[in-house]
Amino acid sequence: MTGIVHLVGAGPGDPGLLTVRAVELIGEADVILYDRLIPPEALSHARPDATITYVGKQGEGPQFPQDDTHRLLLEHARAGRRVVRLKGGDPFVFGRGGEEALALREAGVPFEVVPGVTAGVAAPAYAGIPVTHRDVASGVAFVTGHEDPSKPGTSIDWPALARFPGTLVFYMGVRTLPRIAEELVAGGRSPDEPVAVVERGTLPGQRTLLATLGDVAERAEQEQVRAPAITLVGPVADLREQLAWLESRPLHGRTVAVTRARAQASALAARLRALGAAVVEAPAIRIRPLEPTLPPMGVYDLVCVTSPNGAELLLDRLRDARELAGITVAAIGPGTARALRSRGVEPDVVPERAVAEGLVEALAGIPAQRALIARAAEGRDVLPEALRARGAEVDVVALYETVAEPLSDAARDAAAEADDLLFTSASSVRHFAAAGGALDGPRLVSIGPATSEELRSHGAEPDLEADPHTPDGLIEALLRT
Ligand code: SAH
After folding, report:
1. Residue 118: CB within 6 Å of ligand 1?
2. Is the whole model's pTM more than 0.85, yes or no?
3. pLDDT in tens, 293-307
C-alpha cells in the first residue's frame, strides 16, 4: 500500500507557532524530512523510532539537491510509510512545496498540505508591525529577494513593484538589500519610505532595524544584519514605534539557564519566556521516588511537608486523604502548599519565610507529640532537631532522592553562555558542579540561604538571592537587575 506525504509548515521559529495539526502529524510520522529553518523543538514531538532526515539548503552553504528530496519522498511513500515533509513557515510560500506536490501528483502518491504561519507575516507581527493597516496599506505583496542566480537579468518587474499600492515583504533579501532599495527608489518610491528588517523573527534573538529606503543598505551593513530576515517596505513599518511588544518585555534579550529537574522546570521556564527571556534548560538533577514504609497517619499529630515533590509523593502513598483528618499539616512554602491544595489538602501552617527555620518558628506553640517529616533523602536536619528539642518524637521519612541528571555538552555550553544561571536547590548546585557546569560565567541567582551556602562551598558567590525563597522570589530578583 502506498503511504501518504504531508507537506507541513512548521512556522517561523517560535515553537508556539506550530499548528495543532502539524504537531499531531509529526507525532504520527514514520519518516520526517526537514529543512534548516524549522524550530528544533518541532522534532521533539516525533516518535522515538521515526526516521528523521535533514534535506535542507543553506544560502551558499551545503545544499541537499531538490531532486534527491523528491526521490526520498517517493521512495518512503511507496514503501507505505507516513511521511512528514517539514518546512519552515508555510510550505507553499517560497518553500518549494508546490514543486514537491507536483512531483507527488505525477507519481500518483497521495498528499496533504498543512499551511504554516509564514515568516513574512509573523516576523513583522512580532516586531509590532501589521502588514496591512486601514488607510495606510490596503494590500501586501510577498516577494523573493533572492533571484535565481542562474537566470540572466532580472525576473522581478521592479517598476511594477515600486508602483504596488501597499506593503512589500521581501524574503531571502539580506544580501540583495542594496539592490532592492535602489530599484524601488529608481521606480519612484521615496527614499524616505520606512523599511523594517526583522532578523530571526519570533526567535529569542529577534532583532529589528528600522530605517528608510535611502539608508537601509548602509545601516544593515553597519548593524551586521544576517539571514534569516524579512525586509518590509511601507509606512506600516512606523507603527512599530507604538506597537513593539516583544522587545519591550522586561527580560527580552536575556538568556536564563534553569538547572531544576526537568519535571519542575517547565512552569518556571514558561513564566520566564512570557517575560521575554530565552530559556536554556540544563537540568542537573532528577527526582527518584523511594518506597519507604509509612506507619498509619493516625499515629501522628503533625505532618510536615518540605517540598512540592514530597507533597505529591506523600499523597500518592495515602489511600484516602481522610487519613490526614485531625492532623496538623504544615507546608514549608507556597509551592508546597499549592501542591497539597491541588490534592485536596489545605495546609494548616505555611510560614512566611520558606525555609526550615521559618517553619520551625511558625510551628512554635503548635502541639506536636509525634511528628512526621516527609521529605527528600538529602534534606537538612534543622526541622527534626528543633522538633525533637521540643520533646516531640520525630519520624523523618525520605519519599524520594535527588540524583544527578547527565548534563549534555550542548546544555553545559549553553548554560555557560547564559546571562543568568538559576539554582532552586542546594542539590542542583552540587550536581551541576559535579557534571562540569561552570559557575564562573553567568550571574548566579540562588533561591535561598541553603542554596547560596552550597554555591559558596564551591567557591562561587551568588550574585542575587531570592527573597522570598520561592520561584516567584527568583523571578522578582531577576526583574530587579
Ligand atoms: N516557507 C517559508 C519561507 C522560506 S524562504 C515561510 O513561509 O516563512 C526562507 C526565508 O524566509 C528566509 O531567507 C527569510 O527571509 C525568511 N524567514 C524564515 N524564517 C524567518 C525568521 N524566523 N525571521 C525572519 N525571516 C525568516
Report:
1. yes
2. no
3. 888 999 999 999 999
